[in-house]
Specification:
Layout (H helix, E strand, L loop, with lengths): L1 E6 L19 E2 L2 E2 H10 L5 E6 L3 H12 L4 E6 L6 H6 L2 H4 L4 E4 L3 E3 L3 H9 L6 E7 L7 E6 L2 E7 L8 E9 L2 H13 L11 H10 L4 E5 L3 E3 L3 H15 L2 E2 L2 E3 L2 E2 L3 E3 L4 E3 L2 E2 L3 E3 L4 E3 L2 E7 L4 E3 L2 E7 L4 E3 L6 E2 L4 E3 L1
Parallel strand pairs: 1-4, 1-6, 4-5, 8-12, 14-17, 15-18, 16-19, 17-20, 18-21, 19-22, 20-22, 21-23, 22-24, 23-25, 24-26, 25-27
Antiparallel strand pairs: 2-3, 6-11, 7-13, 8-11, 9-10
């Protein structure tokens, strides 16, 4: 089995953080979102990964090659135009072939380890694939599953009138990969676009169901869509709580309230930091109070009181704000 990770999206919901880096490279709890996903693959039975790159591809290729090529057999497929998740997955057909695959969306994090999802898939028996699902309060925002007993009866992407509240949670196991590629290819060749005027993976899976494929589901209890600032901060809290505090920097005459992740070469002076703060390498915080925030690489904070804030890399914030979303290489004085 191969893991397939779509990492080609722009991530407009995370602007301004994604003006200068692709969405999977936004940092949370000490490393990029993509790093947390790949850590899960390393700890699973899967040792081959296909990462789909597109927007600002060099960020992804350089990071994955440097950090994971010793542990995983990594290949990179390219999505030259952003035309939906189905189109993205279709770009991996030459790398996956007819092998089974596990699709892990590049902006989703899970508390459950990948091995447990694979075990749940195996327990379903003779199926062509399975999808992780969870009941949600606002199903029109998600791909939705309807069931017939213990098998999937239908799939629809972001319906205006949802037939159920059982949402697709961003992890898929596909045994019949060739069948999925045929279905996605038919959508693209016939220009059959779905929600958002894009080629949707959900529509390709539905096409497989229409042709007689069988799909089951497994439960995903805790998952975090890191494509929005509020859920990114929520994931930061959960991951820091799980991992505990790390301190690669210097806290001079300061108080750190765990859990806090402090990167290498970071400097904290005359400040109170935490809980739930992730500080990237080389950042500097002076005379400030920071909690429930993510501070980017090489950024500088002085005389601020921040909570629920994202500060991009290489930024400078001074003054007395309480909540911000600051992109890379910005300078703000208040």
């Amino acid at each position: 089995m191969k893991a397939v990770i779509p990492a080609a999206g722009r991530g407009t919901r995370l602007f301004p953080q994604t003006h200068t880096k692709p969405k999977p490279m936004v940092r949370v709890a000490g490393k990029p979102i993509l790093g947390h996903i790949l850590d899960g693959v390393v700890d699973s039975p899967i040792d081959e990964v296909v990462v789909v790159v597109g927007v600002m591809r060099d960020h992804v290729v350089e990071y994955v090659t440097a950090e994971y090529s010793d542990d995983l057999d990594v290949a990179f497929a390219e999505q030259e135009t952003t035309e939906g998740l189905g189109h993205c997955i279709y770009q991996t057909r030459e790398y996956v072939g007819d092998e089974s695959m596990c699709i892990l969306l590049g902006d989703m994090l899970f508390e459950t380890d990948l091995g447990a999802f694979l075990d749940a898939h195996d327990a379903l028996g003779d199926v062509d694939g399975s999808i992780g699902v969870k009941r949600v309060d606002e199903p029109s925002n998600y791909g939705i599953v309807t069931m017939d007993g213990d098998r999937i009866a239908g799939l629809v992407e972001k319906p205006a009138d949802p037939p159920s509240n059982l949402a697709i949670s961003g992890v898929y196991v596909v045994e019949d990969s060739a069948g999925l590629f045929d279905a996605l290819g038919a959508l693209i060749e016939n220009d059959v676009r779905g929600a958002g005027d894009e080629y949707q993976l959900t529509d390709g899976l539905q096409r497989m169901l229409d042709a007689g494929a069988t799909f089951g589901t497994f439960e995903v209890r805790d998952w975090y869509d890191c494509g929005r600032p509020e859920t990114l901060l929520e994931a930061n809290r959960v991951l820091l709580e799980s991992a505990g505090s790390t301190d690669g920097g210097v806290a001079d005459s300061s108080v750190l309230i765990p859990p806090v992740d402090v990167g290498e070469g970071a400097l904290i002076e005359h400040s109170v930091v935490g809980p739930y703060v992730s500080i990237d390498d080389g950042a500097r915080i002076e005379d400030s109070r920071v909690k429930d925030s993510i501070v980017g690489r090489g950024s500088q904070l002085r005389d601020v009181n921040l909570a629920g804030t994202l500060v991009g890399s290489g930024s400078e914030v001074t003054g007395t704000p309480s909540r911000l979303n600051v992109g890379d290489s910005s300078e703000i004085h208040l």
